[in-house]
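Database export, one record per block. Field names are fixed; values are copied verbatim from the stored entry.
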Amino acid sequence: MEQQQHFRVVIAGGGAAGISTAARLVSAGIKDIAVIEPSDTHYYQPFWTFVGAGVVPATASTRPMAQVMPQGVQWIKARAGQFDPDNQTVTTADGQTIGYDYLVVAVGLQIDWHKIAGLPDALGKEGVSSNYRYDLAPLTWQNIQGFRGGNAVFTFPPPPIKCAGAPQKIMYLAEDYFRKQGIREKSRVLYYCATPTIFSVPGYATALTEQVIQPRGIETFFRHDLVEVRAAAREAIFRNLDSGEEVVQPYDLLHVVPPMSAPDCISQSPLANPAGWVDVSKQTLQHVRYSNVFALGDASSLPTSKTAAAIRAQMPVLTTNLLAVMNGGQAVAEYDGYTSCPLITAYGKLILAEFDYNLNPKETFPFDQSRERYSMYLLKRYIIPVIYWDGLLKGKRWPGLMG
């Protein structure tokens, strides 16, 4: 295919990572930038927990892509299909070949609904939903409202997944709603989680266990992976990851978090590490083999949580290093793995987890953030969305806190 276009910088992906990077580069005076992104709509996905809990409408999470695309960039409205870093090209799914001097990969990850037997047909029907899709999050709220007792089952797949706190946030909100409606005594709230603990950072895990899970009678089953949904029988089938045993769990409400993986266009390219993610230095975000390629966000190999807050901390490091390389220098700025997970534990309560690569707390406020607080709930509900739309997406150096 004859090369059709060439740009100094090509950014593959128009989510939080791609748009914020493009905006920062434009503000630094870089011209001749292209963003490859097929979607007409940009989604603020952290709001989908609130959508599923009836706090905000789904439309509150959306803006037209044209509205958030930085002025001065070329928007190539297509999906990135193939990466050829040896020839410095990206081929789109519709056959365009785009050349670049420098490449930023920010294509996110892919959600593998099909890897759970029976799930694609069950989604959106008979009490089965997921906040990991825009059209299904409102159904989560319908299911919570319509629940009259029985088994409310919430799942967490083997990581990595985006926003790893989201699977338990909706469970806490649902449990709180059941309590307020007077049906908690007729209900079991069950959390089937593929990881060995409720949260990776020990201090926050202890806080969640002692402040939320135990006092509220939530039943946890760790090292269990959802492998099948039998919708006709209303049964969720889990595999015990330690024993291999099959566990059959009847449900009346089932919130599923599907497995996720690196996009095929990355995992099948020379950019990938053995696990399929863009193989970059965890400090500099520069590719380990191609010095003119950088990556951030969910598609990268960075061993941290895949959240918007992590992107907020990664983006200034990436742009600083990219600009240095473009000017003939070296990538020396370093990212420490900072990420944030605002853990909504009830309507009006939140534990604000912030930590680095080493799972050490890296907290913003001068108080114990492992305590449930109304003020942190207000931050999540009202302030962080403003930081996202008016700060991150415009490439500004605003605080993090956007998981």
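Remark 1: The CA atoms of residues 110 and 263 lie 5 Å apart.
Remark 2: The two ends are 40 Å apart (CA to CA).
End of record.
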